[in-house]
Structures are given as structure tokens and as C-alpha cells.
Design a protein that fits this description.
The complex is a heterodimer.
Chain A (H helix, E strand, L loop, with lengths): L5 E7 L3 H18 L7 E7 L7 H5 L3 E6 L5 H11 L4 E6 L2 E2 L4 H11 L3 E9 L5 E3 L2 E4 L4 E4 L14 E2 L7 E5 H7 L11 H11 L3 E12 L11 H12 L8
Parallel strand pairs in A: 1-2, 1-4, 2-3, 6-12
Antiparallel strand pairs in A: 4-11, 5-12, 6-7, 6-11, 8-9, 10-12
Helix pairs in contact in A: 1-4
Chain B lengths: L7 E7 L6 H7 L5 E7 L5 H8 L3 E4 L5 H9 L6 E4 L4 E2 L4 H12 L5 E4 L1 E5 L2 E2 L10 E6 L3 E2 L9 E2 L6 E3 L8 E6 L2 H14 L11 H15 L2 H29 L13 H4 L4 H10 L5 H18 L6
Parallel strand pairs in B: 1-2, 1-4, 2-3, 6-12, 7-13
Antiparallel strand pairs in B: 4-9, 5-13, 6-9, 7-8, 10-11
Classes of the chains: A alpha/beta, B alpha/beta.
């Protein structure tokens, strides 16, 4: 383990074809980073895929496979991978995010230039070019966290890297100090919103959360069948814990 | 994260296993005890093993691993034993799931059969005969006995009611990297066939039974829907393996009965003897057709004698 290395954690179930493109794009983005002696590592958590992923197919991409026979929550899967492969940064990445080459470079640089930034998200777009994510906003009452500017054409939204209360875990760079201080993601969430929870907890401890807007990557969003069903219990838990503890963005 | 109870000992047999051993050992490093039984490895197997455990038992080479398994199960100190082969591994969440399983059901059952994923030539087999491929590998010490041979299911001493098959698909599995290629599969099949023990009573030899077994392999192992052409290739190898085994047994018999080569002719003509296959499956064991008919004839003759009926 050397300076400024990243452990990329991809939690994935099925969708081998998509995962392959995700990992190929990731390799290209990681290659742009390789300047010093950093050791980057890619860990794919095979979250009870049927049938499982085969190690040999991923070895050529330099990927470590972590197999779970029973489905883990997003939090448990990421925590397990981070514990086994510690590094200076963790990048949580969804299997349906296709990174552009400069994205990681930009995010990495942003965090190096601003040591108080503990977590950094990235602008993500849908295949039609509209915004999927460029920061999470909080609405009043039962609305809670939602993706700001969602479905707006990306070129109409400012490209300034700005601070938010939370960003998505679909593509999230986390400093190791933050990760360890907070004990990783909260495993009581079934699936979803543990990323927002992490951001809010980090802010409570004085870290900043930013979204890198200079580049945009593709995010197909919630491609895994059955994924959506776990959103509701996660949201209930989140609102119970955090309602009244965040600032309303409007 | 993983509780200390129940205690589990892992017993693993190795022989020239450097390619796969590390993965296997990493996946059971949580166990209370790991016992390696090494059969005269000539590669880096022992070096890898030493990184994970100091309980290494070196034994001379023995051609059939199942024959020696029982002896080394005694070495385990824990109440529960997990037998894993060096080309297999468990998942990350296996320790939690297996310990949970024992805690919940260990009172009712002595042994658990786990489903196994077989990876052959870079493909995970999903078809009927290759999956779930239940293996009895987790059991209470002293309740499971292996039978001499290669890849035969062991026996639960306390009876079948004390055995639980863990239901697939979302449950702990054994992950088995069987063969990296079809050629390796062929090589190993021949190897096993040559090393195996065969019945030496020539009255029980029936070549046509092996032929029926070949058809059984073809019929059951072919699964285009799930495994595509690979399943066809494997089923052909296994059918061929059945015939080869018949020939090996025949040659080893002290008095060689007629081979009955004509029984193997349907292979060339392409007619499937379904009645033989169904009879085999129905009787649930190897049988000899001619042996059965002979017995039937003897019984009839005996009845006729008792009844005082004279044949004309």
C-alpha cells in the first residue's frame, strides 16, 4: 500500500455484459491516474449472482472477486471489500456507471487540492444526455433527499464543482480517514440511501462533500432486477433517522 | 464478526495443488483449525499450506483419495468438520452462514449436504446433472464415512434422516474449479478410471450394463438449454468413459467372460436403449441383466422342483 492509491469497489449481481463495459471504462480511467507509485485495486463483489462470476474472466482486467452466496446489503458488501483491501481512497462504483477517461483524474485531483473534502461525487448522465446526478438536494416534509436537476439537459447545468450535503454512492470517492472515522457505510440500510447517510455523518464531523462537475459519466441507473423493491424500507429508515437534521435546499 | 461457536475444523487433502490451494485456504482461514493431509506433493503446495496452518500431515501417495479420508477425520479437534478439496473454495459469507446453520439445525441434523457450482473449461455448469451436485461436507465428527473409490458420496452413519440438503439457489455453496479445459477433463477421467477399483467377480460382469451407463450419461448430461455445446462435449466424454471402464474391468477379471461387444453396437447405430436406462435407474444400482435372468430361472426351477413338476 503506497501513497494515494484507490480501491475501487463494484458491487454487482448478474449483468456480466454491462459489468465488463463498466470495468473496461474503469481501467482506462485508472490508467490516467497512474503517475506516481500508487497501487490501485479493483474489487468486484459478486453479490449472489446466479450463476457466480468466474474469476478467470476477470483476472485479465486485474480484478479481485469477492463472492457472496447470499445477497449482502450495499453497505455490507462495500464494507467487506474495504476491510479486505484497505487503501488511501475508496471509490464506490455501480456496475451500470461507465466512467469517462478524465473523471477519476478530476475527482482525485479535487480531493488532493482540498484536504477538507472527505467525499467526492461525480456528475452522471443518462444515455439521452440528461442529468442523472450532480448532487443530492433535500426537500421539505416527506420529500427528503432527491437528485437535483434530474432529467435536465446536462449542458444547461453549471459545471462548477460545488459543495452539497450529499452525493450519490453510484460513483463516490471517499477518503480513508473518513471511512475509518465513520466505520464505513451503515449496514442497517437494506439497499439504498446508506450513501446519503454516510455523507451526512461525514459533514457532522466537519468534512466537506463535493460533486465533481467538470466531466460527466454515463449512468443507466438501477439496472439489476429486484433492486427497486429494497428502496422503500431503506427510505423509511433514513427519514426516521435524519428528518429534521438536514438543511432544506428547496 | 464471526462468532467463535460452533467450532469447526477444516480437513483438506492436497496433492500438487499449488494452482488452487491459496484460494481454498483463504476461504477457510476463519476456521478454528485447518488440517492439511498432503499426498507427497512435489510442487509449492506445502509452502502455501504453511502460510495458513501448521497442522500438516504428510502421507504417501494413494491413488484414491476417498479411501483415506476417514483416517484423518479423527485428527480434527472440533465437534464439526468441514471437508473441502484443494480445488474448491467457499464464499466470503460462508462462515457466518454455516455457523448459523449449525446453531439453528445442528441439534436435528448430523450432516449437511451443500450444493456445488462446477466450473468446467471456464463455464459454470447450470444443467440438471451438474447442478446442484449436492456434497456432504459439513458434519458432526464421527457421523460420516467415506467409501473407497473416487468421487463417491459418503455415507451418513446415523442414517439419512440426520442429513439435510441445504436448498439452493440462495444458500452457501461450494465453488469447484473442476477442469480448466476439456482436454484436462479427458485426462482426469482416464486417470480416475484406471485408478478405480472394480468388482472382481466375473459372474457380475456385464458389458452391456456399461453401455447402458454410457447412454445414461448421454441422455442425462446433455443439456443444451443450460450449458450449450459444452454439455454435449462433456456427456460424450462421460459416455466414452463408461465404455472404457467396462473394458478396464473386463481386462482385470481373472476369468474373462465373453465381452458382448455387440451390446456396444447401438453407439454406432444411434438407437437409444431406453428400457435399459430406465431399468438401471429404477433398480438404483449397477446390475447385471444376465445375472438377473439367471437368478429368475433358478427360482422358477426351484419352484418347479418343489411342486414336483417334471419338465418334459
Amino acid at each position: 500500500m503506497t501513497k494515494e492509491g484507490i480501491t475501487v469497489i463494484v458491487v454487482s449481481k448478474g449483468l456480466e455484459g454491462l459489468l465488463h463495459f463498466c470495468l473496461t471504462a474503469l481501467q482506462r480511467a485508472l490508467q490516467r491516474l497512474m503517475s506516481g507509485g500508487e497501487v490501485h485495486r479493483v474489487v468486484v463483489v459478486d453479490n449472489a449472482s446466479r450463476p457466480p462470476y468466474i474469476q478467470d474472466l476477470y483476472r485479465t482486467l486485474g480484478v479481485k472477486l469477492l463472492r457472496a452466496d447470499l445477497p449482502l446489503s450495499f453497505a455490507a458488501a462495500n464494507n467487506a471489500a474495504a476491510t479486505l483491501y484497505p487503501n488511501d481512497f475508496y471509490l464506490l462504483l455501480n456496475n451500470d456507471v461507465l466512467l469517462t477517461e478524465e473523471t477519476l483524474l478530476g475527482m482525485h485531483k479535487l480531493m488532493r487540492d482540498h484536504p477538507q473534502v472527505g467525499l467526492c461525487g461525480s456528475r452522471l448522465i443518462f444515455p439521452d444526455g440528461s442529468i442523472q446526478h450532480c448532487g443530492v438536494l433535500f426537500g421539505p416534509g416527506g420529500i427528503g433527499p432527491y437528485h437535483g436537476f434530474r432529467k435536465k439537459p446536462s449542458d444547461q447545468v453549471s459545471r462548477i464543482n460545488r459543495e452539497y450535503q450529499a452525493v450519490t454512492g453510484a460513483c463516490l470517492l471517499v477518503r480513508r480517514a473518513v471511512w475509518e472515522e465513520l466505520g464505513g457505510l451503515d449496514e442497517s440500510y437494506p439497499f439504498g440511501l446508506e450513501d446519503i447517510d454516510l455523507c451526512l455523518r461525514a459533514r457532522q464531523r466537519g468534512w466537506n462533500v463535493m460533486c465533481h462537475n467538470e466531466t460527466e459519466s454515463l449512468h443507466l441507473e438501477a439496472m439489476t432486477p429486484g433492486r427497486r423493491a429494497l428502496d422503500i424500507p431503506s427510505r423509511k429508515l433514513f427519514m426516521k433517522r435524519w428528518k429534521g437534521h438536514y438543511t432544506l435546499d428547496g | 464478526m464471526v462468532e467463535n461457536f460452533p467450532r469447526i475444523s477444516v480437513v483438506m487433502h492436497t496433492r500438487n495443488s499449488q494452482e488452487t490451494l491459496e484460494r481454498a485456504m483463504e476461504s477457510v482461514s476463519w476456521a478454528d483449525e485447518i488440517i492439511i493431509v498432503d499426498m507427497a506433493s512435489e510442487d509449492a503446495t506445502l509452502e502455501i499450506a504453511r502460510r495458513f496452518t501448521d497442522r500438516i500431515i504428510s502421507i504417501p501417495f494413494y491413488s484414491r483419495v476417498d479411501g483415506v479420508r476417514n483416517r484423518y477425520l479423527e485428527e480434527a479437534a472440533s465437534e464439526w468438520i468441514l471437508v473441502l478439496d484443494s480445488d474448491e473454495f467457499l464464499s466470503y459469507d460462508a462462515p457466518r452462514e454455516l455457523k448459523g446453520l449449525i446453531t439453528r439445525l445442528g441439534g436435528k441434523y448430523d450432516a449437511f449436504a451443500m450444493p456445488r457450482y462446477n466450473i468446467i473449461a471456464g463455464q459454470i455448469m447450470k444443467g440438471g446433472a451438474w447442478y446442484p451436485d449436492y456434497q456432504i461436507r459439513l458434519f458432526r465428527k464421527g457421523t460420516v464415512k467415506w467409501i473407497d473409490g473416487t468421487h463417491i458420496l459418503p455415507e451418513v452413519v446415523t442414517g439419512p434422516r440426520r442429513l439435510l440438503e441445504i436448498r439452493s439457489p440462495d444458500c452457501p455453496h461450494i465453488h469447484h474449479r473442476n477442469y480448466p479445459s476439456l482436454q484436462e477433463f479427458i485426462r482426469r477421467q482416464v486417470d480416475y478410471a484406471l485408478r478405480d477399483t472394480y468388482e472382481s467377480d466375473s459372474r457380475h460382469f456385464d458389458f452391456s450394463d456399461y453401455v447402458a451407463r454410457a447412454y445414461e450419461a448421454l441422455a442425462i448430461r446433455s443439456d443444451r438449454e443450460n450449458d450449450g455445446d459444452l454439455s454435449h462435449a462433456l456427456s460424450l466424454v462421460m459416455a466414452w468413459d463408461a465404455v472404457i471402464r467396462g473394458l478396464i474391468q473386463w481386462e482385470r477379471l481373472s476369468t474373462k467372460p465373453p465381452l458382448g461387444f455387440f451390446a456396444a453396437l447401438p453407439i454406432a447405430t444411434g438407437r437409444v436403449p431406453w428400457w435399459r436406462i430406465s431399468l438401471r435407474r429404477w433398480l438404483w444400482r449397477r446390475h447385471s441383466m444376465w445375472f438377473l435372468i439367471r437368478r429368475l430361472r433358478e427360482i422358477l426351477r426351484w419352484i418347479a422342483m418343489k411342486a414336483g413338476i417334471r419338465r418334459v
